[in-house]
Known about the structure:
By secondary structure, the chain is an alpha/beta fold. The protein is 45% helix and 15% strand. The chain has 24 helices and 25 strands. The strands form 6 sheets. A 9-stranded mixed beta sheet has the order 10-9-8-11-12-13-18-22-21, with helices on both faces. Helix 2 (16-39) packs across helix 5, helix 10 (279-285) crosses helix 18 (488-501) and helix 15 (382-402) packs across helix 20 (581-593). The protein starts with a helix and ends in a 17-residue tail after the last helix.
Amino acid sequence: MRNAAVQMRDFxxxxxxPLAMGLQMLIIIASNRLAWVLRFDGNLPQWAQLTFWQxxxxxxxxxxxxxxxxxLYEGLWRYTSIYDLQALIGAVSTSSIxxxxxxxxxxxxxxxPRSIYISDACLLVLMLGGVRMTRRLYSxxxxxxxxxxxxxxxxxxxxxxxxxxxxxxxxxxxxxxGFIDDDPKKLGxxxxxxxxxxxxxxxxxxxxxxxxxxxxxxxxxxDTATIxxxxxxxxxxxxxIKTLPNVRDIIGDKVEIGQIRNLSxxxxxxxxxxxxxxRPLGRLIAxxxxxxxxxxxxxxxxxxxxxxxLQPAALLMFDRYENSLHQIRMELQDREPSFSMHAIVGDxxxxxxxxxxxxxxxxxxxxxxxxxxxxPLMEENPCEAIKNNVRGTRVLAGxxxxxxxxxxxxxxxxxAVNPTSVMGxxxxxxxxxxxxQAHGSGTSFCIVRFGNVLGSNGxxxxxxxxxxxxxxxxxxxxxxxxxxFMLIPEAVQLVLHAASxxxxxxxxxxxxxxxxxxxxxxxxxxxLAGLRPDDIKIKFIGMRPGxxxxxxxxxxxxxxxxxxxxxxxxxxxxxxxxxxxxxQIESLEALAARGRSAAVVATMKxxxxxxxxxxxxxxxxxxxxxxxxxFSAPLDPxxxxxxxxxxxxxxxxxxxxxxxxxxxxxxxxxxxSCDWRGWLQPPRVGAQSPIEPPATPDLSGIDYTxxxxxxDRRGSFSPRDLL
Length: 723
C-alpha cells in the first residue's frame, strides 16, 4: 500500500499540469451547468438547453486560454495563498467579460440570460477556490500529529511567525496550545487559530488546565529583567523553558522553529549591547601587528577572534599550551584571514623566548592575558603564582619596552583589589609592576580590570551544569557568596575599547553590573534544566582559603570615575613604589624559583602592603579632603520618581542627548519599575575629592630612571592621541 501511494504521488507530480488543466475544464463545465439549473429551478426549457450546448465549447475555450496568462495551471494547490485567489478572480472576471462580448456577436445565440454570466462567474470562483483550499486543508491536517505541547509567552510578530512555521513545516516537533500576553486587547484573540489564553498572572491557572510540555519565551527584544521575572513565575512548575535568539541576532527579521533553543544562564545575566563607536577600534588595530599572550585561554581566544575581525597587519598568538593554541589557530584559519597569523608556543616567564618572539615579529600592541587564575590552586602553589603572574608580567613588560612596543595592556582581575588570596596578591603585584614600568617609558602601559566571565575555564557555571546533570548536589561555599559576572564577548569588547582610549599608566575597570548570589544562580540553572529547586540538593561546603564573600573592583585608596567609554570607569589612586621595588620583585621571584613557599607568602604580603598603601603623611592629607568611603552603599542611584525602583543606564535617542552625554558628566537613566527617564550623575565607587589636588612631581622616579637599574635604552616618551 505504501509503495502504491508513493507511485500515485509520483504520477500526479509528473503529470501535474495536464491533470490540473483537465480538472479545471470539468469545473468550468459544471459551474456553467449549475448556473443554468439555478436560473430555471432545475427545469430548463428547450431553448435554454440548446443555448447551453451551443455556447459551452466557446465558454470552455475562452476560459482555458484566459487562464494561461494568469498562471492558474502552474501553482501547487497545497500552497494556495491570497496571491492565488487574486489570480483566480482576475482570470474568471476577464474570461467572463470576453465571453459576454462574444455572446453578443452574430455567432452568439438570440437570447443568453444576463444572470448566467454573474452566477456562473461566482460559482466558478467558489468551486476552483474550494478545490484548491481542499488540497491545502488536506496538507494542513496531514501535518497535525501529537507533538510537544508548547505554551508561547508573547503574542507579537515573532510568536506569529513561529506558529505559522509550525503549520507549514512538517519536520517540527511542537504543537502550539496557546499564548500568554499582558496586553488586555489581545485576550481571547486568535493567531493562526491559536488562542491568547491570558496574562502573566494567569500562568499558574493556564499551566494546570492545559499542561504544556514546554514554555517558549517568544520576545526577542526582552531584557534580562523581563526574562528573570518570567522564570520566577514559572519557578514552582517542573517545565522546560525555551527562548528565541536576541533581536540583534535575528538576521533579516526571520524567525523559524529551528531557532528555538533552551534558555541559558547567559540570558539571565547578559545585558543589552553597548552602542559603542567602532571607529576607535579600527584605528587601534587595523594595519598593526598585535600580540596576545594566553591566546588559548577564555579571554585570550576571544581577544584573538575580535582582533581578527578588525584586520590587523599580523596577529601573534602566544601560549605555552599547544592544544588550546592549535585550536584557536585552526578556528581563525578556517575564516581565511587576509593578514598573517603566527602561533608561538612559549612561556611568558622565559625571557629568552619572549625576546626572540618580539625581535622576530616586532608587535606594536600587546594584550597580556596569560595568568594563573584559580584561587584554590594558587593557595596551594604560591610559588607558581609568582612565577607566572608576577615574573611573566615583569619579563613581558620589560621586553615590550626594550623592543619598542607602542602599547601594553594588562588584563587584571577584581581579586587584585584588597587581595585576600595568593592569586589576588600576585595579580596586584603584576599591576604594580606595570605601573612601575610605565614611569618614563616610551611604551604606553595600561591595566584593565574585570570580574568573572561566564563560560571561562574554571567558571562555576560549567561545574553547576555538570553537578545538575549528575543529579546533584550542587556545591556552593557559602549562602551569601556573590560574584560579578559578564559574558566573555562583552568583556573583551570593552577591553578593546578601553585600550583604544587608555592613557599611559592608567587603570580601567569594566562596569560589571550587580553582583550575583551564587545560590540564586544555582537555583536558576536548576530551573533551566526543567527541574524544581527541590529536585536538586544545594550543599554549602564552607569557604575555601583566600576566598571573599563579595568581590571589589576599586580599593580603599582608589577612586572610580566615568571615562570616555561607556561602561568603562577610570580608576585613580596614589600608588607609590619605591626605587627598589622592581629589585624586590626580582628577589621574590628568586624565592619562588627555589620553592620557598612560606617566604614567598610573607614577602608578597609586605610588597602588596607597601605598593598599595599611601605613605602616612599623604594618606592623612588625602583623608582631610575626602569624604569617608562607604562600600556598603548601593552602586545604582535611586529613582527620583518612585524611590523604590532600580535605575538602569539608558541609551541616547537624539542628537541633543548625544551632545549632552559627550560634554557633561551626566548620563541617561531609566527606572525598571515606573519607566521614569532622566539624566543623573553616575555613581562613583569609593571616595571622591571635590577638587583633585595637583599631582606632586615624583623626583624619585627621575632618580630611578637615571640609575644603574634602569634599562640600557628607553624610547623617548610621546603622548598618544588615543581618541
